[in-house]
Amino acid sequence: MSIAADAETLALRPVTANRLPPAFDRMRHAPHLQWLGRPFTYAFGALILTILGSGATLLAPRLLEPAAFGTFALLTSLFTYAGRADFGLSQLADKQIPGRADSDVLKAGLDILNALWLVGFVLLALILPLLALFGDNALPRFDTALAIAGGIMAMIANGPVTLFRASSRLWEFTVVALILQLGMTVPRLAGLLAGGITGSFAALAAYYALCAFLFARPSPIRLRRRLPLLAMARTALPLFAFNLSWILYLGANRWVSATLSSPHDLGLFSLSASLAMIGLGLMSTVAQTRYPRFLARIEASADACSREIERELFAVTAVLTLIAAAAVYLARPVTAVIFPGYEDSTASTVALAAACIPLGAMSWITPMLVIRSLRPGIDALLLTGAGLAVLAAAMGCGHALAGIDGQAWGNAFAALVLFTAMVKLMHGLGMTTGRGAARIVAAQAVAIVFTATLAFSHSARAEVGPDAQGLVDPPHWKTIFEDDFSTLNLQSATGGIWLPYYPDGNRSNGGNRELQYYVDPRRGGDAPALQALEPYRLQDGVLAIRASQVPESLRARSNGYAYASGLLNSAGHVRFLYGSVQIRAKVPKGRGLWPAFWLLPQDRTWPPELDVFEVLGHDTSSLHVTAHSGLNIPTGEKSARTTGRISTDDLSADFHVYGLTWTRERLVWSLDGRAVFETATPADLHKPMFLVVNLAVGGDWPGAPDARTPFPAALLIDWIRVRQSDADRRSEAKEAIQ
């Protein structure tokens, strides 16, 4: 052997072990560790680590508020995109390496590894400067850079895994793949606990950079030679287009939701989407170990192929439908226990579980479709391009009808459309017969309709118990307070009912990052120029609480706030312990508007709190009701919340009566005299409460107003009424005497 040939052999040897540390070589030959090379070990280990990685993802909502979790979810999508941006080199390994001679395998493996490093450095060199110059302020630039860099290092580190799988080196494949998957558990969670979102992505970037240098170091000899990049690109890019387009589609719903939703609602939707992605990830993990054998079975004949695929997809559809049906009944109680503060996401979680029926089937069959396709790049463009257009349109329509719940059901519709297009492509490739394709699509449609019917019927039954209707407004209860707003009776030295700001004197709610200043219209209150914005206006027995933009010249008088609005509270003048409270009101429409009617404790503690109604101006077809408790507050939350989100007609179109009946045992909310939600009364909600009604602008939940938000905007109030039973009035009087 010549010196040059010997040098080449020495350079190629490390790719066989893929530059693994010496300890790996010793472990590889240890008799008691040979079980690591069995297919079952990878399948079981990957499943466990995927679950653990999912656990780390699911701990994030317990540590982050919904708005922050929305940012975390978008950055996670960027990490995933960067981790798959290998321009088809992994698919190229699957296509070129199996069945080749050892020397060819070694050369191809070295070329692929070195090409991965080259692709990674080019991407970093292009993306990071662009991010510094043109980065979107909606996402923190430094965190975005960490997410992208971490994903690129993960992509490089995953190169050896692909080579080991393609060359059937099961022991090395199992060990390295499991080590890489471990990065999504302990390092990510430790970073999140230590440094929040930034810490999480910094830990991921560091972990995968270390793995890349341990397992995937490039060969200097091969780097000095010219890589066959053009030939590799011609073969790899079409395969890459199919794989990347699928990944883009799966993550696109969060980005579409980000354009439609407030930061708070994006966080709720992102939790539902994360749960769906975890399920799809588990499906892909199992499919990865199954599809090589399945692919061999379907090669026999067209009829055999169609029968096998049909049987396989029927089984997958049945399992996924059972999981979605279980989500209908378990989503709310499980969310309340594991993700307190995210209860409003349960309806969208069920809808995305339904969307996972076709998406899970697609995850199961896509690897086979990529291999069988004669033009994967064009097929990917046609399938996913149309799928993304349908997804955006369906989510937009769904959002207009029912907020994030409608967005989630839009996902289910778009997924069924995309699945139908994929089955049509399979038929064109001879993978299914015409009748078989029709049966497959019909089974999916039936599964989604069944899940939707189950979800809507369960939601209608679950919100209120059979006895709740009797507590809405019992006829024998007596009215103890009523204001019909023929005048506005503001508090003064001689009496009055309403104070036009918070009892402690605050003019806004900084904890929610609201954007309004509550104006005092009384003589000697705020500057006349601010009072001229008329935060309160009476007309024909209706009070309008109005939100207006503050001119730049007046913002020094409004503490710098850009909006002026109104808040009324009855602290010290109207309070009650148990009873029925109602308001007849008409809410405004417009992004950033946040009308609410709520109760706070007379002793000024917080929590607890009772929200009779909250409506977001960008989603006036949803009624939000909440009981806040100060007991057993989840980590990272400000209160323990029991909340309901009720889908309604457009509440801004007319006046409605919003009510809450509060007893020692139960809380029952109503809309127009019909009970819509109930829960047990928390143990710390047994103290007198006073009334608060306001029109807030902006904040973490509704987001800021946009150019289409109408100003002035008005919350119209016809009357407010409090009623009590004789027993409760006697009990309250006795408590007051004591």
Task: Kindly describe this structure.
This protein is α+β, with helices and mostly antiparallel strands and 738 residues long. 55% of the residues lie in helices and 15% in strands. The protein has 19 helices and 17 strands. The strands form 2 sheets. Strands 1, 2, 3, 4, 5, 8, 13, 14, 15 and 17 form a 10-stranded mixed beta sheet that branches. Strands 6, 7, 9, 10, 11, 12 and 16 form a 7-stranded antiparallel beta sheet that branches. Helix 3 packs across helix 10. It is elongated and about 95 Å long. The termini are far apart.
Query: Roughly what fraction of the amino acids lie in strands?
Result: 15-25%
User: Helix count, per DSSP?
Assistant: 19
Unreliable residue runs? 1-18
Category by helix and strand content: alpha+beta
- What is the mean predicted local confidence, pLDDT? 80
Number of strands: 17
Binned, the helix content reads: 55-70%
- Which descriptor suits the 3D outline? elongated
- Indicate the radius of gyration in whole angstroms: 30 Å
| Main sheet summary | 10 strands, mixed
How far apart lie the N and C ends?
A: 104 Å
